[in-house]
Amino acid sequence: MAEVTMDKIVSLCKRRGFIFQSSEIYGGLSGAYDYGPMGVELKNNIRDFWWKEMTQLHDDIVGLDASILMHPRVWEASGHVSNFTDPMVDCKQCKSRFRADQIDLSAPCPVCGTKGSFTEPRNFNLMFQSHIGANTDSSSVVYLRPETAQGIYVDFKNVVQSSRVKVPFGIAQIGKSFRNEITTKNFIFRSCEFEQMEMQFFCKPGTEDEWFPYWRGQRMDFYIRMGIRPESLRWHQHGPDELAFYAKDAYDIQFLFPMGWQELEGVHSRTDYDLSQHQTFSGKDQSYLDPETNDRYIPYVVETSAGLTRNVLMALSDAYDEEEIAPGDVRTVLHFHPAIAPVKVAVLPLVKKDGLDEYAQKLEKELREDYTVFFDRSGAIGRRYRRQDEIGTPYCVTVDYQTLEDNTVTLRFRDSMEQVRVPVAGIAARIKQEMKDYKRPQGK
């Protein structure tokens, strides 16, 4: 395995249309990124993989899409208005900004080298503030949500009353969140605008210790099924200094990113703090009446919270490889699981003439009914294979002169580069079976 660096990931993302710097022609905007043709497919595939896992495959979880803008009292109840801050210092010389808890204030500025140039630490609220309506005074203040979880909590009773769900049950949501990060770094790992995939599981007090390990197991298994190498994943339990005051227990799934082990997803036992807070601040009852026992209680919550954008970076980092297939001949390849690969199948006519192009176009249209397909007729066939390897396409179908004789095509496999002849009539079914049976080769 070649060393995977962030520079290699960033270069590939720009070169192959995965991720671009936002507003690049104007010099870019720090902490904001655009997802290109390949990137949006990868992100959507990961999103859909998670959504199916959480809702379709679990009969005790329902979905929600809450508004980004919420009543400002929501963020008072959650503690974000008063507590969602980071200590910040500025360098008086170069004006660079740093988190005070992540820098040695007795050392020189890491940007300009000036010593003793830091301002006194001051709190910096991470929420983006805006205004709604014609006035721009304190009565019109709203916030761009810094997390998606609160939308689930404030809609808890609406879901219970309208969906006939019974505790224990979960509410899943995928959506954008915004944080005015002091420092954005490591590409899309930490940005001001990002997407989260969260599920809040509501359970009877006293049963949270049963559900907490269950969801830990479910969430780790999710990444294995997505094709991520197990050796690149690990658990980190929050110690006393890390644990939120309302949390009973918390674990992070960490991934070995190019910059080291970092948080990918959190699984938290949050007690009844959130619903209790919203009951207090709203004055509306948030308790649940058990229809079988007539017990009334405020449910406890086990939360799973993953970053969709971090999942994209994880998938790119885990899949990236450089293979020397002959002396001096190195190919760059992304070993995505077919379920999340941006393009599932590439259709390639060997040449543009003699009817091969027309045959390939017809086949491509047929395959588009079931798969995301890329049609490429430009350049030598070997070069086209390499282009597909770089975007992680698991299967290439080549239409050649033999195709015109016996209606068979060449099916090429990305990971092994093996090629087999397959009847055109069965190509869609063969690809479907290959996707179902896919196992990532050892060492790739």
UniProtKB/TrEMBL annotation:
Family according to the record: Belongs to the class-II aminoacyl-tRNA synthetase family.
Reaction it catalyzes: tRNA(Gly) + glycine + ATP = glycyl-tRNA(Gly) + AMP + diphosphate
Record-listed substrate binding positions: R99, E147, F194, E195, Q196, M197, E198, E303, T304, S305, A306, G307
Binding site for ATP: 179-181, 189-194, 263-264, 307-310
Record keywords: Aminoacyl-tRNA synthetase, ATP-binding, Cytoplasm, Ligase, Nucleotide-binding, Protein biosynthesis
Aminoacyl-transfer RNA synthetases class-II family profile domain segment(s): 7-327
An annotated GO cellular component: extracellular exosome
Record has Metal-binding as a keyword: no
PROSITE patterns in alphabetical order: AA_TRNA_LIGASE_II
Enzyme superclass (EC): ligase
InterPro entries for the chain: aa-tRNA-synt_IIb, aa-tRNA-synth_II, aa-tRNA-synth_II/BPL/LPL, Anticodon-bd, Anticodon-bd_dom_sf, Gly-tRNA_synthase/POLG2, Gly_tRNA_ligase_bac, GlyRS-like_core
GO molecular function, one term: ATP binding
Quaternary structure and interacting proteins, as annotated: Homodimer.
Location of the protein in the cell: Cytoplasm
EC number annotated for this UniProt entry: 6.1.1.14
Gene: glyQS
Pfam short name (any one): tRNA-synt_2b
A biological process from GO: glycyl-tRNA aminoacylation
Source organism (scientific name): Parasphaerochaeta coccoides (strain ATCC BAA-1237 / DSM 17374 / SPN1)
Function of the protein: Catalyzes the attachment of glycine to tRNA(Gly).
Identification of the protein by name: Glycine--tRNA ligase
